[in-house]
Amino acid sequence: MQLSTKHLLGIRDLTPGDIQLILDTATQFKEVLQRPIKKVPTLRDVTIVNLFYENSTRTRISFELAEKRLSADTINFTASGSSAAKGETLLDTVNNILSMKVDMVVMRHSASGAPHFLAKHIPAAIVNAGDGINEHPTQALLDALSIRQALGGLQGKKVAIIGDIMHSRVALSNIYLLKKMGAEIMLAGPPTLIPTYIREAFDVRVEYNLKTALQWCDVANVLRIQLERQNQPLFSSLREYNLAYGVSKRLLDSLDKKIVIMHPGPINRGVELDSDVADSKQSIILQQVENGVAVRMAVLYLLAGAKGEKN
Ligand code: CP
Questions:
Q1: How many CA atoms lie within 13 A of 307 on its CB side?
Q2: Measured from the CB, is residue 59 less than 6 Å from ligand 1?
Q3: Residue 232 in this model has a pLDDT that exceeds 90
Q4: Buried b / exposed e across 188-215, counting CB within 10 Å, b at 16+?
Q5: How many whole angstroms from 66 Cα to the centroid of ligand 1?
Q6: Which domains does the chain have, with CATH numbers?
Q7: What is the atom index within ligand 1 of the atom nearest the CA of 136?
Q8: Which of 90, 173, 225, 229 is deepest in the core (most CB within 10 A)?
Q9: Is any atom of ligand 1 closer than 6 Å to the C-beta of 130?
């Protein structure tokens, strides 16, 4: 089985079959990661550069770990401390790295569309590790694997995506993925953080009352407030945001059912999510992080053309 695409630029480009294949392959890699020796020789002849032009903890570390678990050779590039700081263009940087015989590029960039630009100009396979406010496809895939694990599937499941929808690449990738896989979606948050086009563009529910959204859903995927992407204030204060849209234990206890809590990280504790929820049994936040390694192994393995055996 093969993916229908050479790159992973966004969930938008994947078919439901591609998504199913990645999730099923990741499930097999999860089994590898339970073994005493967690390493397989699958990508032994493959060289991968991790090109991070924007800060990251989870995504960068889990790509690096996924590559090491698959026995790939890896190079790590961060923009700070590189010649990008001297004005070198993205294309020059990447062409110089590719001249050293690199097969795949994993890239995070603050500019939406940066990986799509690269894909038009270089021969290597490209994996988007988050581009601006556009997409974060491996996050949506690991979220889907985590929902599948918690609830047994995606079809018909009710997922509320809560908070800063406007600036969230996680939201957009999740919307594409959940629609393709037959889940129901509700976007919830203050009107200033939910773009008006989105309800009709994606045929999703929009809800401005947090408790109504939580009562409706099986899973709440709570998003980080991205203050660094807000040019002007979109709510009065973090304190007031927390009062109106922060997910608290008191609010969850007032529902007539138990729901699953997710967050892509990093969490603004006490803003969009209270600590006693983030660290509760209802939260699967650390399972999401754990699943990130298996999902990234699956993506790299499938894009490398399934060169070797998985195990
Ligand atoms: N979820 C996520 O992308 O986290 P990082 O920014 O730490 O990679």
A1: 16
A2: yes
A3: no
A4: bbbeebbeeebeeeeebebbeebeebbb
A5: 15
A6: 11-135+290-303 (3.40.50.1370), 137-289 (3.40.50.1370)
A7: 3
A8: 173
A9: yes
Query: What pLDDT is attached to residue 230?
Result: 74
Q: Report how far residue 311's alpha carbon sits from residue 156's, in angstroms, rounded to the nearest whole number.
A: 33
Task: Establish whether residue 179 lines the binding site of ligand 1, counting it when its CB lies within 6 angstroms of any ligand atom.
Answer: no
Q: Does residue 307 have a pLDDT over 60?
A: no
Whether the CB-CB separation of 117 and 263 falls below 8 Å is answered with no
Q: What is the pLDDT of residues 116-162, one digit of tens each?
A: 999 999 999 999 999 999 999 999 999 999 999 999 999 999 999 99
Euclidean distance between the first and the last CA atom of the chain, given in angstroms as a whole number: 16
Strand order in the sheet with 73-78: 73-78, 47-52, 104-109, 125-131
- Ligand 1 close to Cβ of residue 292 (< 6 A): no
Q: What is the pLDDT of residues 80-107, one digit of tens each?
A: 888 998 899 999 999 998 998 999 999 9
Between 240 and 306, name the one with better pLDDT: 240
Residue 310: per-residue pLDDT: 62
Which tens digit of pLDDT belongs to each residue from 250-262? 999 999 999 999 9
Task: Work out the average pLDDT over 263-267.
Answer: 97
Which residue has its alpha carbon closest to ligand 1 atom 4? 58
**Binding site membership of 226 for ligand 1 (Cβ less than 6 Å):** no
Amino acid at 276: D
